[in-house]
Amino acid sequence: MQTFTQYVAGSNIDTSLKQLLHTLVNTSKEISKAVSHGALAGVLGETEQQNVQGETQKKLDIITNDMLKNALDNDLTVKGIASEEEDYVVAANENGQYLVCFDPLDGSSNIDINSLVGTIFSVLPATEDELTEASFLQKGCNQVAAGYVLYGPSTMLALTTGNGVQMFTLHPETNEFMLTEAQVAIPVDTKEFAINMSNQRFWQPAMQTYINDLIKGDTGVRQKNFNMRWIAAMVGDVHRVLSRGGIFTYPADTKNPKKPFKLRLMYEANPMALLVEQSGGLASTGYENILDIQPQEIHQRVAVILGSSNEVETCLNYHAL
Ligand code: AFP
Fold first, then answer.
1. Mutate to test the pocket of ligand 1, among 263, 265, 270, 304 (most ligand atoms within 8 A of CB)
2. What is the CA(236)–ligand 1 centre distance, in A?
3. Which pLDDT score is estimated for 56?
4. Where do the annotations place Mg(2+) 1 binding (predicted)?
5. What integer is the mean pLDDT of 19-44?
6. Considering only CA atoms, which residue is closest to atom 1 of ligand 1?
7. Measured distance CA(160)–CA(158) in Å, rounded
8. Which of 93, 119, 176, 223 is in the most buried spot, having the most CB atoms within 10 Å?
9. Mind listing the domains of the chain with CATH numbers?
10. Half-sphere exposure (Cβ direction) of 308: Cα atoms closer than 13 Å
11. What is the pLDDT of residue 294?
């Protein structure tokens, strides 16, 4: 079985990107430790601070954000970072070649119930001399690497550098990520969907009709029964989709007219869309490929529909009506 170090050494990417991937992955090992200590380390619970999006930050949101921020700041390949937990983009090293967007601990509402959480990251080229928010506003198709680390029963890394998706499992004794699945392939068909059903009455008609048809199962037009799963951490739901197929969606809703979408483009939707597409799946807003969206701001939110290609296409057909 190949270690992550051996895999990266043998891959056809720039030395600077190799270095950056090691920084991200080594920090995720530290995060994995911090998360697993939980109540023993007094790291559970909320702080009194809110992030720029008005969400109350958990202690671990801040701890993991600081861990990644410090590690990336010390990596000379990194020019700047953007994080869910930072109001503005943060400058790192003037001559860095990369910009890193990340959600240090996705699914943080799961922390206190000891359920799945993860780190999501997206790496973009730094193309401008001066670092501004505009430097980051690149389409998802520009990403040179994307991945997540899932802190679950085992800690797993899913990574793409544009040549398929590889999955690694952290060996608890050696503390090495081991390649446990090469060239992940999402099944094209599925009988499993993931959506927060409590928002049903706030969705647009296309999504209401699509989900209603899934629920009708073999008594409706789909003529097969579907099952539903919802982990409330995108990283967990996308991991299931990469592992055994499925469709995951957080669609537009009218629950809060000021916030029609929930998931963040730059550090949730884009990296997950690249992983899904690199595994043979599709990722769309319902009307546009996620990776083709021209971002307008760093904390922008989007509707997300991703997963098994035939099922996503079926869902998109409802949006085309
Ligand atoms: P938190 O990190 O604030 O818990 O949000 C997680 C998330 O952005 C995404 O990972 C989930 O898919 C989604 O929110 C869950 O949202 P609901 O709580 O509305 O189900």
1. 263
2. 11
3. 79
4. 84, 103, 105
5. 92
6. 107
7. 7
8. 119
9. 4-181 (3.30.540.10), 192-320 (3.40.190.80)
10. 18
11. 98
In DSSP terms, which residues pair with 249 in a beta bridge?
305
105 in a known ligand binding site? yes
Q: Mutual orientation of helices 234-244 and 270-278 as an angle, nearest 10°?
A: 10
Q: What atom in ligand 1 is closest to the CA of residue 230? A: 20
CA 54 remoteness from chain centre: 20
Q: From the CB of residue 222, how many other CB atoms can be counted at a distance below 10 Å?
A: 17
Contact 302, 318 (CB under 8 A): no
Query: Hey, is 251 helix, strand or coil?
Result: coil
* Rounded Cα distance, 113 and 231, in Å: 12
Average pLDDT over every residue of 81-100: 96
pLDDT digit string, tens, across residues 260-311: 999 999 999 999 999 999 999 999 999 999 999 999 999 999 999 999 999 9
pLDDT band at 204 (very low <50, low <70, confident <90, very high): very high
Please report, in angstroms and rounded to a whole number, the separation of the first and last CA atoms in the chain: 48
> How much is the pTM?
0.97
For residue 199, the ligand 1 atom closest to its alpha carbon is: 19
**Considering all CA atoms of the chain, what is the largest pairwise distance in Å, rounded to the nearest integer?**
61
Residue of the CA atom closest to atom 2 of ligand 1: 107
With contact defined as beta carbons under 8 Å apart, do 269 and 290 qualify?
A: yes
Distance CA 182, CA 226 (A): 28
Q: Quick count: other Cβ atoms within 10 Å of Cβ 260?
A: 16
- 193 Cα: distance to centroid of ligand 1 (angstroms): 16
Question: Does any ligand 1 atom lie closer than 6 A to the CB of residue 109?
Answer: yes
- CA distances, 210 to each of 48, 213, 220, 266, 311 (Å): 40, 5, 11, 27, 11
Is residue 70 lining ligand 1, measured as CB closer than 6 Å? Answer: no
pLDDT at position 52:
78
